[in-house]
Amino acid sequence: MQHQGRHFLQIPGPSPVPDRVLRAMDMPVIDHRSAQFAELGHAVFKGCQKIFQTAGPVIIFPSSGTGAWEAAIVNTLSPGDKVLMVETGHFATLWRNMAARWGIEVEFIPGDWRHGADPAAIEARLAQDSAHAIKAVMVVHNETSTGVTSRVGDIRAAMDKVGHPALLLVDTISSLGSVDYRHDEWKVDVTVSCSQKGFMLPPGLGFNAISEKARAAAKTNKMPRSYWDWEEMLKPNAGGFFPYTPATNLLYGLREAIAMLLEEGLEAVFARHKRLAAAARAAVTHWGLEVLCLDPAEYSPVLTAVLMPPGHDADQFRKVVLENYNMSLGSGLSKVAGKVFRIGHLGECNELTLLGALSGVEMGLAAAGVPHRAGGVDAAIKSFEERTQANAPAHLKIVKP
Ligand SMILES: *Cc1c(COP(=O)(O)O)cnc(C)c1O
């Protein structure tokens, strides 16, 4: 079918790229050893510190998020090291598998894919480890496969409570720039992220924000590495440069995306995502469908995963929505394949974008013959009216005549 108008990319990453970012990238490639490049380099390194909320270095790799995971592992851990991870969903499982391939011994706290990493369970396990055999705690902040956000601040508090020296490695691939996250305040040792979700950029950049403790661990660990080596990066980074050809045009986009996030204000960005998520849940609940996340304290601000009623296939439903209304919804991954669809509401997304997306879902439910109660979009509108940008700064509050 030939569609008119813009495709609705409502998957939880890659997220839609704002026109302003696209225009900023529409530039000639420049000499990456020039003074002009160094200006761009310094600007993005400094800007990233604001977004990660850290005074320490943020390393930018030309890579996917998976590459940034690998960088975190090979710089801080040694073969045979023991680490503690939590099965929050598909992405936590993939990271676990990667660590195992690097010869890391992973203890994986089992999960039901409907809850975040439990700070109490981590605390209890670390309390037993009086010999400090566990070298790192590795968690996914926003589990994109389930729409559950773990409480990283509480996990840090749990680690401090038992005085355990393990490193804290956090995947913020789908949360950074959309959900409140504080690298320094939460004493995270490596924050892993990438470009195509909250940063509103095309895929292609991977990030590691690193603590002093992580950098010290990198100096003594035994893992072989070359491309991912932090110190090889940090030397030229100090002058605004990279050790090899960087993804120049993505860096132009990054500089613009950071400017957009800071102009809106991080607090307002986080409040906007919470407001969008509450409206999405209001619609889902009204339809009589179930949100996958079971703990209201862990609802994801960036996506909502929805359980299909028994006997209805989520992928068939997504196909109907794509073919009829030119909208991509996220699929269910591995354990929840066919059972779940995901509505992304991150990055370049506002009230009307979300209402458009929810309209597509509601029309799709009808077209696919999925039992539901009509009126979910109205419920979302009501949610917006009730939560009138309560957390937004004064100049962003709704103006009434
Ligand atoms: C998207 C995602 C990844 C994988 O990122 P890629 O860029 O596809 O390698 C890892 N973790 C989380 C939480 C994600 O959302």
Describe this structure in words.
41% of the residues lie in helices and 15% in strands. It has 13 helices and 14 strands. Helix 4 (90-101) links the parallel strand 3 (82-86) and strand 4. A seven-stranded mixed sheet has the order 2-10-9-8-5-3-4, sandwiched between helices. The chain has a three-stranded antiparallel sheet with strand order 11-12-14. The chain has a two-stranded parallel sheet with strand order 1-13. It is globular and about 60 Å long. The chain has two domains: 8-14 and 265-390, Aspartate Aminotransferase, domain 1 (Alpha-Beta Complex); 19-262, Type I PLP-dependent aspartate aminotransferase-like (Major domain) (Aspartate Aminotransferase, domain 2), CATH 3.40.640.10. With 401 residues, it is an alpha/beta fold. It starts with 7 loop residues before the first strand and ends in a 15-residue tail after the last helix. The chain binds pyridoxal-5'-phosphate.
Number of domains: 2
Amount of helix = 40-55%
Q: What is the H level of CATH, i.e. the homologous superfamily of the largest domain?
A: Type I PLP-dependent aspartate aminotransferase-like (Major domain)
- Main CATH class of the largest domain: Alpha Beta
Q: Which H/E pattern describes the elements?
A: EHHEHEHEHEEEHEEEHHHHEEHEEHH
User: What is CATH's topology name of the largest domain?
Assistant: Aspartate Aminotransferase, domain 2
Q: Bound compounds, please? A: pyridoxal-5'-phosphate
